[in-house]
Automatic annotation (TrEMBL), chain A:
<protein>
    <recommendedName>
        <fullName>Tryptophan synthase alpha chain</fullName>
        <ecNumber>4.2.1.20</ecNumber>
    </recommendedName>
</protein>
<keyword id="KW-0822">Tryptophan biosynthesis</keyword>
<dbReference type="InterPro" id="IPR013785">
    <property type="entry name" value="Aldolase_TIM"/>
</dbReference>
<comment type="pathway">
    <text>Amino-acid biosynthesis; L-tryptophan biosynthesis; L-tryptophan from chorismate: step 5/5.</text>
</comment>
<keyword id="KW-0028">Amino-acid biosynthesis</keyword>
<dbReference type="InterPro" id="IPR002028">
    <property type="entry name" value="Trp_synthase_suA"/>
</dbReference>
<dbReference type="GO" id="GO:0005829">
    <property type="term" value="C:cytosol"/>
</dbReference>
<dbReference type="GO" id="GO:0004834">
    <property type="term" value="F:tryptophan synthase activity"/>
</dbReference>
<dbReference type="InterPro" id="IPR011060">
    <property type="entry name" value="RibuloseP-bd_barrel"/>
</dbReference>
TrEMBL record, chain B:
<comment type="function">
    <text>The beta subunit is responsible for the synthesis of L-tryptophan from indole and L-serine.</text>
</comment>
<dbReference type="GO" id="GO:0004834">
    <property type="term" value="F:tryptophan synthase activity"/>
</dbReference>
<feature type="modified residue" description="N6-(pyridoxal phosphate)lysine">
    <location>
        <position position="106"/>
    </location>
</feature>
<comment type="pathway">
    <text>Amino-acid biosynthesis; L-tryptophan biosynthesis; L-tryptophan from chorismate: step 5/5.</text>
</comment>
<dbReference type="InterPro" id="IPR036052">
    <property type="entry name" value="TrpB-like_PALP_sf"/>
</dbReference>
<dbReference type="InterPro" id="IPR006653">
    <property type="entry name" value="Trp_synth_b_CS"/>
</dbReference>
<dbReference type="InterPro" id="IPR001926">
    <property type="entry name" value="TrpB-like_PALP"/>
</dbReference>
<keyword id="KW-0456">Lyase</keyword>
<comment type="similarity">
    <text>Belongs to the TrpB family.</text>
</comment>
Length: 270, 403
């Protein structure tokens, strides 16, 4: 682990390089989430996200048992699966998408990674133009079996940190995470919340003591005010449930573009 | 060195053989582990640390043994099933977990974990339940020890097992209907985990079977080991051979089977785990990760978990405990399935030959014994120990409709 500072640049993949460059340029990062396959022409949302000023996009690969997701993402997952969404088709859709100029980050549960084996899974992501990966049920102590495989395939596996993560472990997450560190703002599941949890500020501060990788704060960030507040501490925000609730309510790509533009402005004002 | 300290748990402890302590990182062979969201990693570590301390503490062991004696009614008897044995041509012995307080083996584990929760300073138990037996056991243990209890139960199971829902509420537990997915045990487990993420500071998740993240599969098996240890002594006294030729138990997640097998692992007894044809994780599952552990799960071609479907709500789980997957790989146990029809037949047959109404879950084990005795797979004169994991009172309304 002694190389983490001196060789930092060598460790960086395309996700981290792009996020760092933007952050170091003074920009607060915005990573909206969409459940893959939620509608027949779902990739139109990705174009809208990019047009609204997203710095990366998280694409959820729906899994039957999303144990870390709250009601909104569960509903989106069920809807996507009900209309026949599969990992294969979602990645095929992404492969057809022109380069949006920002990194795509897949997120899913570990069962889907294991299904065809981590090597095949990571290779399929890469072929689809995905550069990052989030696996919420693969914590630091189990991540070894995927980190090497992912790195070899050119996939940056971002690890999650939580408010209860103790200190030495948090530093290790900072060291081993690739692309960025995903800071889970609150002890709970994904979903919109009225206020940004106090635990978010403290967690972000603690992560940054141990790493200078970009830190994206997620879980419960749903309004411009919360994004602005989060941007004071973290390098950026992940917005999932607030996006998907609108999609489930019938909002189209233009509506989402308008919504994300309000978050973009809030982050830029800070 | 720092990396080791941060990551290793149980790294210094060598795996102590089959059905001993799991190997480093909570492994049973390639199965097990602790595949939880980061937000539950610390909670799992705390449970592991607390259980290790408690299980090595004669004070804790003594307190649990006494509760099991004075509150649960242990030891439970070993009942020779004379008339059915005569019909089948084998010597069948029943380990009577149906005679425990609350009517199933689930209380052994629930009481153990409730006592652990008080030791950890938790004020509330969270549980998932399928048939409702683990929910009732958890509600009972909570009442006994002055804890609160919140039980997550699939809406479909609440309809099938409405009496158990009423029992839990009567015992002071909150029963939360789970409306997602198949509305059965799998979804109740997911919802209980989600709830635990937000309540780790004051709540203990009382997992009901040998499933979930490390240390649960190991801890629950240890709390159920009492079944096998009692049966071992009782068989030694009762059977001419001392040890039965076969040890048979039903398997959903697999806790009564694991507890029973553990008592006979150093004997030549052959282990048979009997799954529901519609919920056969060990027999028909493939490698996967769900609910915090790596094991065998029923999945479709895309890697989505398939909903289990059995007449017995307690076996409606698409996976199997990691240690069972390992025992299967080792060839130490084998796993077979029986159909709902065979189960109904076995239930009625035990009632009429022995005057014992088994839970539909437990009747799975019996259904296999009946089939295997008929086919000669169990040779005439074989001795068979069968763990009758629960009583059938909860299933009477289901049986009334189907028989």
């Amino acid at each position: 682990m002694t190389n983490s500072l001196s060789n930092a640049a060598l460790d960086q993949g395309s996700v981290e390089r792009q996020l760092r460059a933007r952050r170091d340029g003074g920009r607060r990062l915005l990573m909206p989430y969409v459940t893959g396959g939620i509608t027949p022409d779902w990739t139109a949302y990705l174009r809208a996200f990019a047009a609204a000023g997203a710095d990366a996009i998280e694409v959820g690969l729906p899994f039957s048992d999303p144990t870390l997701d709250g009601a909104t993402i569960q509903e989106a997952t069920d809807a996507a699966l009900a209309r026949g969404a599969t990992t294969r088709q979602i990645l095929a859709d992404l492969a057809e998408l022109p380069d949006l100029g920002i990194p795509l980050v897949a997120s899913t549960y570990y069962n889907l990674v294991l299904h065809d084996g981590p090597e095949a899974f990571c290779a399929a992501l890469r072929r689809a133009g995905v550069a990052g990966l989030i696996v919420p049920d693969l914590p630091l102590h189990e991540a070894d079996e995927l980190t090497g495989v992912a790195a070899a395939a050119g996939i940056e596996l971002a690890l999650l940190a939580s408010p209860t993560t103790p200190e030495p472990r948090l530093a290790e997450i900072g060291r081993r995470s690739r692309g960025f560190v995903y800071a889970v703002s609150i002890m709970g599941t994904t979903g919109e919340r009225a206020d940004l949890a106090a635990s978010a500020t403290e967690l972000t501060r603690r992560i940054k003591l141990g790493t200078d990788r970009p830190v994206l704060l997620g879980f419960g960030i749903s309004t411009p005010e919360q994004a602005r507040e989060a941007g004071r501490h973290a390098d950026g925000v992940v917005v999932g449930a607030a996006v998907m609730r609108r999609v489930l309510d019938g909002a189209g790509p233009d509506d989402l573009r308008a919504f994300l533009a309000t978050l973009r402005r809030a982050l830029d004002q800070e | 060195m720092q990396t080791r300290d941060v990551l290793a748990w149980r790294a210094s402890v060598a795996g102590s053989g089959v059905m001993g302590e799991p190997a480093a990182r909570g492994r049973f062979g390639e199965y097990g582990g602790r595949y939880v969201p980061e937000s539950l990693a610390e909670a799992c570590r705390e449970v592991d640390e607390a259980f290790r301390g408690a299980w090595a503490d004669p004070g804790f062991r003594g307190a649990l043994t006494r509760l099991l004696a004075v509150h649960v009614g242990r030891p439970t008897p070993l009942t020779p099933a004379w008339r059915l044995s005569g019909e089948l041509g084998v010597q069948l012995y029943l380990k009577r977990e149906d005679l425990t307080h609350t009517g199933s083996h689930k209380i052994n584990n629930a009481l153990g974990q409730a006592l652990l929760a008080t030791r950890m300073g938790r004020r509330r138990l969270i549980a998932e339940t399928g048939a409702g037996m683990h929910g009732v056991a958890t509600a009972t243990a909570a009442a006994l020890l002055g804890l609160e209890a919140t039980v997550f139960m699939g809406e479909r199971d609440m309809e099938r097992q409405s009496l158990n829902v009423f029992r839990m509420r009567l015992l002071g537990a909150e029963v939360v209907p789970v409306t997602s997915g198949s509305r059965t045990l799998k979804d109740a487990t997911s919802e209980a985990m989600r709830h635990w993420v937000g309540t780790t500071d004051d709540s203990h998740y009382c997992v009901g079977s040998v499933v979930g993240p490390d240390p649960y599969p190991w801890m629950v098996r240890e709390f159920q080991r009492v079944i096998g240890e009692e049966a071992r002594v009782q068989c030694a006294a009762e059977l001419v051979t001392g040890v039965p030729d076969h040890v048979v138990a039903c398997v959903g997640g697999g806790s009564n089977a694991a507890g029973t097998f553990a008592g006979f692992v150093d004997t030549p007894a052959r282990f048979v785990g009997v799954e529901a044809a519609g919920g056969a994780g060990a027999s028909g599952g493939r490698l996967g990760v769900l609910h915090g552990f790596r094991s065998l799960f029923l999945q479709d071609d895309e890697g989505q978990i398939i909903e289990a479907d059995s007449i017995a709500a307690g076996l409606d789980y698409p996976g199997v405990g990691p240690e069972h997957a390992h025992l299967r790989d080792l060839g130490r146990a084998r796993y077979v399935t029986v159909t709902d029809d065979e189960v109904l037949g076995a239930t009625a047959r035990l009632a009429r030959t022995e005057g014992i109404l088994p839970a539909l879950e437990s009747a799975h084990a019996l259904a296999w014994v009946i089939r295997a005795a008929g086919s000669g797979e169990l040779p005439a004169g074989s001795t068979v120990l069968l763990t009758l994991s629960g009583r059938g009172d909860k299933d009477v309304s289901t049986l009334k409709e189907l028989l």
